[in-house]
């Protein structure tokens, strides 16, 4: 057991990125996942703004037979995102988050994968909260100039019950 505290007053919203931060959050390995990069460029041509790009991508994920599973098998090689997005279409939160961040970075939109915990069991008697591995979760933050980092959770596009109820349910 341990105690956790926070002071939100000390946190300042980040509304701009330095050049180094921009390069960090748009970096992609050379030659990786060419199908995903081409797909992102194709979607960008259909969408004249980021919200529309995200909506088209959400529609793709929610209508093309994607499956949330904790046993997706092994993805191997340099093109794991291509394999996930266009072949198996099966994975858990980090597969969806990693793919979304990759696609956003492919169109030069700063993004990052965030991992942490979602939910937990509140015990009113002991005034504690139990956090388990089943509460682990990954999502994406996308940087919007002037607004800062905004949360996107692509897991909700394919498995809203996972996000709403957690794995315990």
Description of the structure:
The chain has 169 residues and is α+β, with helices and mostly antiparallel strands. The chain contains seven helices and seven strands. The chain has helices at 19-26, 34-46, 50-63, 80-88, 93-106, 155-158, 160-165, and strands spanning 67-68, 90-91, 111-117, 121-123, 128-130, 136-144, 148-152. The strands form three sheets. The protein has a three-stranded antiparallel β-sheet, with helices on one face. A two-stranded parallel sheet has the order 1-2. The chain has a two-stranded antiparallel sheet with strand order 4-5. Helix 2 (34-46) packs across helix 5. The longest helix is centred in the middle third of the chain and has 14 residues, at 50-63.
Task: Describe this protein with a few key phrases.
3-stranded antiparallel β-sheet, alpha+beta, 169 residues, 7 helices, two-stranded parallel ribbon, 7 strands
How would you sum up this structure in a few lines?
With 169 residues, this protein is an alpha+beta fold. The chain has helices spanning 19-26, 34-46, 50-63, 80-88, 93-106, 155-158, 160-165, and strands at 67-68, 90-91, 111-117, 121-123, 128-130, 136-144, 148-152.
Topology:
Elements: H1 19-26, H2 34-46, H3 50-63, E1 67-68, H4 80-88, E2 90-91, H5 93-106, E3 111-117, E4 121-123, E5 128-130, E6 136-144, E7 148-152, H6 155-158, H7 160-165
Parallel strand pairs: 1-2
Antiparallel strand pairs: 3-6, 4-5, 6-7
Helix pairs in contact: 2-5
